[in-house]
Amino acid sequence: MKKLATLVATAFIGATSMAAAQDEPRHGGTLQSVLWPEPPGIMTGIYTQSSALRPTTKIFESLLTYDFNLNPHPNLASSWDISPDGLKYTFKLRENVRWHDGEPFTADDVVFTYGDYLLEVHPRARTVFERTEVSKVDDYTVTFDLKEPFAPLIRSFDLCCLIVPEHLYKGTDYRENPNNLAPIGTGPFKFDEWKRGEYIHLVRNENYWVEGQPYLDDIYYRFVPDAASRALALETGQMHLATQNDLEVLDTMRLVEMPHLDMTTKGWEWGSPIVWIEMNLRKEPFNDKRFRKAMSYALDRNFFRDVVFQGMASVATGPVHSASPFYEADVTDYSQNLDKAKVLLDEMGLTPDANGVRTTVKLLGLPYGEVWNRAAEYTRQALREIGVEVILEPSDPAGWAARTRDWDFEMTMYYLTTMGDPALGVTRTFLSDNQKQGVLFTNHAGYSNAQVDEYFRKAAVSVDENERRELYSKAQKILVDDAAVLWLVELEWPTVFNTKLKNAVTTASGPNGSFADTWLAE
Amino acid sequence: MRFAYTILAWLPRALMVLVAIGLLNFTLIRMAPGDPASVIAGETGASDARYIEDIRRSYGLDQPMWRQAATYLGNLATFDLGKSHRMQRDVVDIIFERVPATLFLTATALTLAIIVGTLLGIRAATRVGTWQDTLISAFAMLCYATPVFWVGLLLVLLFSVLLGLLPPFGMSGFIPKSGFAAILDTLRHLILPVITLALFYFAVYVRLGRAATLEVLGKDFVRSARAKGLSENQVLYRHVLRNSIVPVVTMAGLQTGQLIGGAVIVESVFAWPGIGRLAFDALMQRDYNLILGIFFVSSIMVVLANLITDLVVRTVDPRIGRM
Questions:
Q1: Global pTM?
Q2: Which of A159, A218, A329, A379 has its CB 3.0 to 4.6 Å from that of A203, i.e. a possible disulfide?
Q3: Which of B29, B35, B39 to mutate to test binding with chain A, by most A CBs within 10 Å of its CB?
């Protein structure tokens, strides 16, 4: 069964990269990529900012990679096996892999990474791997044992969880380790130089375990602070690659029209980001379901998709991304309907005053650029139609994060990665016992529903794919009907690249792939 | 002798100003919502309580505020600016790595602006009311009123995108060069940011040069000089310039103090790896030690620049010290 899935996936990838693979890959060339902001560091596990991931993923590798449908494929693990009860995962490792300093890669590195290093430094990895007991069978075999099944485990071996060299880290203070400044990995590119304020330079790993790869001589990640300058760099051909929110949406639209530039929105399936407005359910009137539903009916998601995000998005109908196998389409439909909204508000007794205002609420917008300002402005305009006056609260990234995590908001807008499997990225926002004041990306809103908790808890430990799907569907129906948050759109991050650059996006990690098979045409 | 006395009188004042600035900066930055932990959590898209605690403890943010302030001032006294939270390196090293790039940019721009601006200002004054005067004054006004980032982007649009003559950003090209070629390469990268920044400063010197020259030209001693039969040029260079240059020197001195922190916008537009941009990033990331370190170094610059200006002005015009 698994073989078949792999076969289908391979055929699928084959079809999508046909265009890129028309001619033979060429060795040589220097890739110039935009990177902003300048990351604080690029040691995997310690620096997990999105801008740190891009260079990090060229230096370090994980056991598996994932295709666009999030099916696992071999990487440092050549094969794997999951016991029928879902309690034992066995990985066979490749035997010809060496660290950049020449030491051999073995089971010790894997055991150290997942059993010690990541638990110590990485919050997201911690929630996954603290369930497992990882042990070495022989030099090239490791097992992960679980107390209760955790189906998402097999989708947890990528970006966050790359493997670190045990011989350099064991017994050291991980955050202070001198290797963090010039990391040693197994990946296709080696760290060469970091010129602060200017660029990070990676060079070809001559002894990479895949014969003949990588194709590129080296990669420059250049820090360009100004969005307009970043767009110009692609326009003039000085840079080959920009992705995620490197470019303002309007620039992206302009650039793809140019003959030497191309764009894809693939390669972010791993993250599956959804944009929403979260309401503080501890405050009036947000604790009334009717008020939340009324706001949901007032917002036109097609307008968000087509105008605010310029088509770089699709309508979101609920908490699970439509690319996920657990997506449920049959939920309450919140197509814009002002009459329905007004009826709900009338029922609540929120009647319009002389100026047509029923109530006033505050919205904390996301301070990440022009698009987000417009998203907040449109929200204000749309809610005014039903007599809800919105006060926009400006902030900067630090202020936004502090107020959101401390529950100091009425409404807050942001996007969050839902990670393909709901157990990894979705449930954290709604589980009632995940209300942790002071910790970002937990249940800030204070949503609490025993029924939903029960479905989520059961689905996390079930090994029966169909049962999991059913449980997640039930939970989605409740959450959407409750309007637990106002889901707006599923973000599609654009990757804009020079047509000379081939195979930039071939997996669910997209620009965060290893670039072993990426090459530059003459 | 007079110089020594001036410096002695200035020292205690300067020290008090620095301590006050240090405390004020500390208070201001802590009043901004959010802290390094919130920024990091926001960037990573995941966090848990232990992670936040780890960060706070490692940055010393778990201590009471008064103790943090006392520690900070104590460290300042020994010129220990601490470690950057975000980069895990000494603030002093980071700052001195970036200062040369900024000084290179700002000093070039300021020098250019002073020379060209003052000369054009004097020219406008000697041709007062003619088309030349109108043209120079209007151009200066335009430069003064146009936002710096907009000028920068337009120059890039013209010289980089349309004409392809000059690189749009950065300090050096993408292909490493050495020796003379590398110097030329850096100079080519310098042209656009320098012009952008110089245009902003330039307007001030045009206005100053023009106003001061006009004022001096109307004075009695100029009439006497002309009556002695000196040529117009002799009058200008011997009598007028020496007097009209004083406000220019004063202004230049004050702006020298801003050399370190005055180029935030230009450095951002042109991805110039200098201190202004570093300050902006540090502020956005709430990298407390780094931003305070930059403030502190900048304020030392300002205080020193004011002293030097004082001394220079006295040399140019000996009457000033004796009032």
A1: 0.85
A2: A218
A3: B39
